[in-house]
């Protein structure tokens, strides 16, 4: 059947997945509350694989395998077509080929039938999940009160919470996780493109568009208002919002636009005209990436614009003023009042930030082709001697005015349409460890695999976790940007048979890897 439009929150690849019998296969024994070494930044600010649901994989007998992120994996034998373990790893929800959805307790393997006319299983969170019936209607199931509420044929779920926006009978509604009664947001002839829903569900930002303009709106504390408009331009990209952890400062903009809207809690939206078009979607405070900031008030933001001086870093105040900080910039990041950036001459530089002024500027290294855009706790990772043809370079780290340390040669890199690059892999949530790839090769012109390595600051050498690791796929921790407690699940390439890819699923506990299941595939 043709499924209705689904939400665009934190989604994984839709697959056919899969209980009559259930077995928990033991791997490494681990305490889920591992503290490890001292953590300099609160993990809650940086989501990793621990904070999201994980989708199952399948063997040739249509058995589903769902990992618990502690070395154990649950095997489900019931012709399952989709399955997820909830972020708290206490329950698994799955859809069977005979249109039934079950919710199972991991501890005692008890299961409850949720729906017997289901065709799709979607957003899965600790508070509940979304599913569709065979008629194409969506429902929200709440774990708090074990009830289902119909959503209609279109919905949106934000990444941060379970406040669902749905559209029905030419109207938009919000259904909060603690309620079975929706709140009407307003009438709409066409579905809104929702950009943001606050954790308390009291603020919603969306846009509508026609041939001439993109119009931004906000619903806040029961009132609907128009934020502003953008003229349609081929130079503009998708409309985005960026915001801090407390959701008290919100930036709304299309990529490439030369102005944006800043929404600070308690204040009217401020339109800010920039000196050029926005180059990327990332905004920073003086302490790091905006989305990691935990303060209640943002005094100023930094971003990159493309103006008459090339790429320039721009400082934006909360009252709408902006000023150029430095021009001739390629990439940059901030941490605790310091700016790190690469210039047009491929030098990596650092300076103290005083709003739009730089002090005590100095060169860290030359011939730097790429730097990581997040300097958690002041760890600055960058690549020298970059080859865009081979897509690799030599990886280094810099910290606290110490001499830069070389980590590895020929590390795999990514390059984007706008010319920027990135280091393939992930960071630990304290920034001290980087996980990266080497020796990447293509498999059947469809997937890529390589050697997964890690380096922890202060160690003498890097460690190769495994060879033949599938790159950045949803059922791998390295699909996430950040990794907690040095705990990883990853997929290792096995073979291709009749066009079907087979992979082994591994768990890494920070020291050793153990195979949880073998010869698995995406679908049953």
From TrEMBL:
| Superkingdom as given in the UniProt entry | Bacteria
Q: What is this protein called?
A: DUF5050 domain-containing protein
Q: From which source organism is this entry?
A: Butyrivibrio fibrisolvens DSM 3071
Q: Give the SUPFAM superfamilies listed for this entry.
A: DPP6 N-terminal domain-like
């Amino acid at each position: 059947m043709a499924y209705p439009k689904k939400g665009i929150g934190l989604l994984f690849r839709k697959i056919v997945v899969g209980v009559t019998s259930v077995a928990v296969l033991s791997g490494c024994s681990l305490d889920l509350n591992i503290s490890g070494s001292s953590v300099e930044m609160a993990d809650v600010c940086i989501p990793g694989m621990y904070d999201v649901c994980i989708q199952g994989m399948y063997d040739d007998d249509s058995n589903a395998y769902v990992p618990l992120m502690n070395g154990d994996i649950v095997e489900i034998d019931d012709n399952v077509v989709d399955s997820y373990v909830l972020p708290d790893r206490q329950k698994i929800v799955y859809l069977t080929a005979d249109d039934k959805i079950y919710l199972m307790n991991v501890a005692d393997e008890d299961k409850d039938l949720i729906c017997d006319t289901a065709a799709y299983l979607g957003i899965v969170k600790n508070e509940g999940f979304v599913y569709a019936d065979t008629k194409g209607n969506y429902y929200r199931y709440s774990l708090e009160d074990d009830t289902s509420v119909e959503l209609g044929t279109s919905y949106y779920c934000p990444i941060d919470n379970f406040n669902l926006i749905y559209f029905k009978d030419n109207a938009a509604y919000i259904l909060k996780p603690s309620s079975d009664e929706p709140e009407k947001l307003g009438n709409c002839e066409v579905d809104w493109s929702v950009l943001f829903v606050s954790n308390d569900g009291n603020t919603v930002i969306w846009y509508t568009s026609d041939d001439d303009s993109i119009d931004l709106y906000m619903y806040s504390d029961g009132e609907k208002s128009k934020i502003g408009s953008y003229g349609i331009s081929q130079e503009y990209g998708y409309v985005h919002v960026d915001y801090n952890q407390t959701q008290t400062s919100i930036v709304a903009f299309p990529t490439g636009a030369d102005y944006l809207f800043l929404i600070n809690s308690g204040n009217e939206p401020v339109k800010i005209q920039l000196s050029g078009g926005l180059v990327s979607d990332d905004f920073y405070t003086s302490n790091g990436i905006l989305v990691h900031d935990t303060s209640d008030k943002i005094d100023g933001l930094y971003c990159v614009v493309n103006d008459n001086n090339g790429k320039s870093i721009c400082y934006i105040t909360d009252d709408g003023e902006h000023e150029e900080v430095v021009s001739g910039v390629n990439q940059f990041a901030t941490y605790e009042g310091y700016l790190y950036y690469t210039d047009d001459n491929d030098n990596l530089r650092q300076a103290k930030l005083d709003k739009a002024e730089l002090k005590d500027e100095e060169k860290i290294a030359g011939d730097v082709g790429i730097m990581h855009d997040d300097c958690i706790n002041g760890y600055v990772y960058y690549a020298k001697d970059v080859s865009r043809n081979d897509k690799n370079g030599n990886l280094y780290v810099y910290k606290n005015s110490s001499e830069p340390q070389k980590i590895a040669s020929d590390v795999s890199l990514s390059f984007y349409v706008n010319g920027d690059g990135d280091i393939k892999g992930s960071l630990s949530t304290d920034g001290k460890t980087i996980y990266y790839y080497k020796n990447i090769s293509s498999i059947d012109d469809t997937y890529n695999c390589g050697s997964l390595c890690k380096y922890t600051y202060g160690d003498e050498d890097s460690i190769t976790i495994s060879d033949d690791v599938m790159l950045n796929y949803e059922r791998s921790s390295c699909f996430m940007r950040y990794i907690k407690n040095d705990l990883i699940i990853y997929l290792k390439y096995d073979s291709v048979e009749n066009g079907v890819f087979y992979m082994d699923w591994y768990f890494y506990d920070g020291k050793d890897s153990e195979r949880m299941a073998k010869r698995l595939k995406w679908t049953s």
